[in-house]
Amino acid sequence: MTKLKKSSDQDVLRQKARYFEVIQEFALFQMGLNSLEDILWNVTETAISQLGFVDCVIYLLDDAGTNLIQMAAHGPKNPTSREILNSIKIPVGEGIVGTVASTGEIERISDTRKDPRYIMDDAPRLSELAVPIIHQKKVIGVLDCEHDELNFFTDEHIQLLSTIVSLVSNRIDTALAIRKFESTVGQLQSSERNLERKATELQKVALELTQLIDTANAPIFSVDTEGRIDEWNQMVGNITGFVKDEVMGQDLVKQIINKDQRETVKAVLKNALRGIQTRSYEVPLNTKDGRPIIMLLNAATRFNAEGIINGVVGVGQDITELTAYRENLERMVNSRTRDLNQSVQDTEKTRDRIDAILSSVPDGLIVTDTNNRVILMNRVSEELLGVRFSDVIDRPINFAIAEKTLCEKVKDTLGTKSSGYQFDFELPGKVLKKLKIMRAQTSVFYSRDGKQSGVVTILRDVTLEREVDRMKTEFISTVAHELRTPLTSIMGFSEILLTRNNFKPQERKKFLTYVNKQARDLASIINDLLDISSIESGQSFRLNKSSCNAGDVIRNLIPHYQMHHSEHRIEVTLPEEPVELLADIEKLGQVLKNLISNAVNYSPAGGLILVAGEVSGDQFQVSVEDQGLGMTPAVQKNIFNRFYRGDASDTAIHGLGLGLTIVKYIVEAHGGKIWIESEYGLGTIVRFNIPI
Amino acid sequence: MKKILIVDDQIEVRELVEVTLRVKDYEIFQASSGKEAIEIARAEKPDLIIMDIMMPGEIDGLEATRLLKTDPETKDSSIVMLTAKGQQADKKIGLTAGASDYFSKPFSPLDLINKAEEILE
């Protein structure tokens, strides 16, 4: 036992000596070290190489004191390089190392498997010794050692490590402080460099800006809050003739502004200094050689870096030329405007004239474009078709024209090379829905370049013309009939008288009387035709006036009718006193014959016919009254028209339809008037008067 | 003796036709209107009626012809139209109404005699 003890004591002594040597050597070596890395590295290296530990790591508390950062490590767990790539970070209070950092007490774990605080990694060790690194009573880090054997760390180990730690704690703190200082210095140096760089950049920018301002193709200048010039670029110099050196520090207003404009400019500057900017301000300046110029100016408020107003910047352009140009332009615009106004007026005048012409055209006019849309209608066409132009403008033609034939023809006209179509169609009239006969003429119109532009359709109411045509045709037929009737007798009787001789003288005379009467009828018809022909051609009647007694003219005619129309009773009423007239006796007789014939022809046998003459004021009035068919208002309206016959269907009553036309003409040629009073079915009175 | 009825509103024409036909031994009747013509035709049953178209009154020559031709009592009388209307259309209307022939005024007496003889034989 003793021997053992002895030997053990000897071993302890030997070991103590060895530890002493280690510490001595460590302390000596440490003396030569300065950097934190070297100091820490030396500790861990010593622990591994001199004391035979498997792993040794030094953690230092971070600045905040919340985490332990691995700073140096030795052992298989750690790379041999001094560089720690992935520094382990342990929060204070966690694991064995964390506990040591928070308590400041040494921890010796004889069997790590039994200590739940031990943080298992890929190479767990069985025993562990963690010693706090304390400087001035504050934990600044932990020295952590591990070994593969159970219960490896001895009291001697604790003592030795405590000594080492106490030896280096001061140095570590110092090294840390130096390191912190160096870091701060480094940061300061870096900031300084940044500042220098920035200053250089700013200087460059400022230079560039100055150059920019100086060489800008616009006059730029600025004044301080007192109105003194503190910037003046080359352009302002060129324009005003003042170079920068001459004006810097000078009062802008006093130096270069016209006297009469100074107050205005001062007001602009004053406003700008209050933050109210003026744009496009035309300021008259005096150049150095006294030439007045106008500068278009924007006065902008100038701020310093703190946002305080420190002056006014004027940016402008010389608009002397511009003004001249503008004035010239204005003159041109004015002149052009006058021309345009004139031409607009002319156009309006022309349009009005065309409108007036179009609306006065007696024919309906419709203009359609190439899409068959209505682009123009005059008033007559509006009336004829019963539509308003404003209602159908730009609408397809079938909106304006209900008549299908016309629509189709208008459409067909486009594309045709012919001049268009001419055709008649019927339209319901306004009065009594009587059909109106319309003649339409379509034609293409062309633009200047020869393209088809549309269709012009002209509508003409030809109802009256057609009626006249119809009456003319009927007239010719009537004339033929009227001529044939007497001719039949003349030809027939004369032929018989010529071919047969077995007639008694009495019979012979009767036949010759027939021939003579019919020949006179023919002559009368021919006279009527000649009369109407002269009326038609506009030649006035040649009245062969002579003084006569009006009563006699009538009286002389009556017996003839009384004799030939014995089936009618003819009564005559005349003034007892003779009435003297200046008249064409023959024509007056013609008038009376016509009226009496009509009365006889249009009244039944046994009818009474009253012929009366009386003085009425300065007129001699004659009336012929019958109890015949009478006339409808429509017949009365037309009765004096040529070729018109009261009852055209009843052609049995002879006559050309010219009688009353001629009568009216004769009466009017005498300065008189003729009119009709009639009721259909009751009879007719024809009255005329002739001035005495 | 054959009977002939002459219808015309003008006395001169009736006289002329009658004188023209005097060459043969006909019994001649005269009527101055359509109405009168129908009355005489019913009473006398003429073999030939020479009918003017245009006559005043309610019944003109065409209407009289139509009535006579549709009346069993008178339909056997031949009718010759005689009128100043000479157009084709008028002729057709006359024939449609039942007339056998058509004469335009002015007519040739000789033609009329021949036509009358032709119809009456």
Structure description:
The complex is a heterodimer of chains A (692) and B (121). By secondary structure, chain A is α+β, with helices and mostly antiparallel strands. Chain A has 19 helices and 23 strands. In chain A, the strands form five sheets. In chain A, strands 3-2-1-6-5-4 form a six-stranded antiparallel sheet, with helices on both faces. In chain A, a hairpin with a 5-residue loop joins β1 (55-61) and β2. In chain A, α1 runs antiparallel to α2 (36-49). The model of chain A is unreliable at 648-652 (pLDDT under 50). With 121 residues, chain B is α/β, with parallel strands linked by helices. Chain B has a single domain (3-120), classed as Rossmann fold, CATH 3.40.50.2300. Classes of the chains: A alpha+beta (692), B alpha/beta (121). Chains A and B meet through α14 and α15 of A and α1 of B.
**Total number of β-strand segments of chain B?**
5
Name of the CATH superfamily of chain B: Response regulator
Alpha-beta content class of chain B:
alpha/beta
Mean pLDDT of chain A: 82
Mean pLDDT of chain B: 86
Order of helices and strands of chain B: EHEHEHEHEH
Fraction of helical residues of chain B: 40-55%
Over the alpha carbons, how many angstroms does the gyration radius of chain B reach?
Answer: 13 Å
Tally the structural domains of chain B.
1
Widest sheet: strand ordering of chain A: 3-2-1-6-5-4
Number of helix segments of chain A? 19
- The radius of gyration over CA of chain A amounts to 70 Å
**SS-based structural class of chain A?**
alpha+beta
Largest sheet of chain A: 6 strands, antiparallel
3D shape of chain B: globular
The major sheet of chain B is characterized as: 5 strands, parallel
